[in-house]
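REVIEWER CHECKLIST
Item 1: Sequence provided? yes
Item 2: Single chain? yes
Item 3: Sequence as submitted:
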Amino acid sequence: MSVRVACVALFVQVVAANAHADPVDDSAAVHLERGIAAYRARDFGRAMAELLQANRQAPDLADALRWIALTEAEIDDCRSALINIEIFVPLVPADDPRVPELVAVRDRCRSTGNVTVDSTPSGAAVRVDRGPVIGATPVTRLAMRAGHHTLSVEKPGFEPQSRDIDVRALANDRASFALGLAHTTLVTQRWWFWVGVGVATIGLTALALDARPGESHPTPTQPGFPSVTCNASGCHP
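Item 4: Structure as written out by the authors:
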């Protein structure tokens, strides 16, 4: 009788344990699917929350680690991505098709640094290596390939600026710019101003010569009218 009771009790414990385990696994799978959907929608904040929840409920669930690492790489948290990639790889066979994907992410992270670009005033367009505009200051955690680069900022009404930087792999660097007002070209620096001054000078000189005292200037005779001479007897043509 005691053996039967013990067997029944053991059976109940096993059933209870299985009943408790199944909901956890199902819940982890649900969080994983939600996280993957959020990642594909590029909602990385929600993706991370769901994937971390799946990882807490099933720490050995390799696919959760995979998507966590991919999400961390997307938000430029390469240090954390590298840790999760190193945890993921031993959990799967060497020929697992997911391994090459994460190895590529690992290699990219190892050769990438983050740079925050800000300016005073803000709202300046940012260019990397004189390429197209990639955003306006402040630009936070800009992922850049490790090595030598040129950062340029420009804003209407201000002098553009450029600076050479050396981006370090896995580092967080900052480049700050203090923009000065653009210099306004003075009127006296424009060519047409001096041409006008020259023409005006010539005109004034001519007028001054005409107005010098002590010099008589004959009054021109209008054409078609004879000159008139006047004496004691009167005026005659």
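Item 5: Key structural point noted by reviewer: The mean pLDDT is 81.
Item 6: Recommendation: ____
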